Amino acid sequence: MEITTEMIKELRAATSAPMLDCRKALQEADGNFEKAVDWLREKGMATAAKRSDRDASNGVVELYSHGGGRVGVMVEVNCETDFVARSEGFRKLAHEIALQIAASSPKYVKAEEIPASEIEHEMEIARVRAKEEGKPDNVLAKIVEGRVEKFKDEVCLLRQTYIRDENLTIEKLILQSIVAIGESVIVRRFQRWELGESTAQAE
Predict the structure, then answer these.
(1) Which fold does the domain 5-51 belong to in CATH?
(2) What string of pLDDT tens digits covers the 203 residues of the chain?
(3) What CATH code is assigned to 58-110+156-202?
(4) 192, 71 contact by CB (below 8 A)
(5) Measured CA distances, 153 to 74, 145, 196 (Å)
(6) Which one of 18, 35, 92, 143 is most buried, by most CB atoms within 10 A?
(7) From 3.30.200, 2.40.50, 1.10.286, 3.40.50, which CATH number describes the 115-154 domain?
C-alpha cells in the first residue's frame, strides 16, 4: 500500500512521533493507522526502557496527605535535568505515584528489594494453602509460583495496577512518561505513614 504524506502527517499529529518513525510505522503496518500507532507505542516503550538505565539525580520529593491527615506519603521521584523536574508533566506523575502509594500501600519499589526470607515465607504459606485445598503434588510448584508472583504484584509499587487505569501498571505509567518527556524517570524511595499504626509497621 502506498504511504502518503497525508497519512504520515495524520499519524504524527496523533502521536507526536518523528516523521521518519511515522513513515516506518505505516510501512510496517501496511498503512493500517491503528497498527502503526501500536508499533510506535511499542518502539517508544522499548526506547523508554533503555532510557530508564540513565543517571537520574534531579527530581522532586512529593508530599501527599490523604483522608484529612490520616495517611501521609513522601516519595522521591528522579529525572535527569532540573528543567524536566520543574515541568508540569513530571510533577503530575510524581503526584500520581504518591496517590498510588496512599491508596495501595506498597512495601517496596520493585521486586528485587523484597528480602529472600519474605519470599520464602510467602512460598511456604502458598504451599500449605495449596495442600489444604487438595491440589495435586504435580501442580504444587506452579501454584506456589503463581501466588508468589501475585504477592509481588501487591507489595511492589512498580508492579501494582494503576488506580486510575486497570490496564496499566505503575511501571508502564512511568514508561509512558519517559516516552513523553524523553528522560529517565526513577522512583528512588518512598515512605507511607498511617495514623495510629505502630512504629514497627511504619518502618
Answers:
(1) Helicase, Ruva Protein; domain 3 (1.10.8)
(2) 788 988 988 888 777 677 788 888 899 999 998 888 888 777 765 555 555 555 667 999 999 998 888 999 999 999 988 999 999 999 999 999 999 999 999 999 999 999 999 999 999 999 999 888 888 888 888 999 999 999 999 999 999 999 999 999 999 999 888 888 888 899 999 999 999 876 544 44
(3) 3.30.479.20
(4) yes
(5) 21, 12, 26
(6) 143
(7) 1.10.286
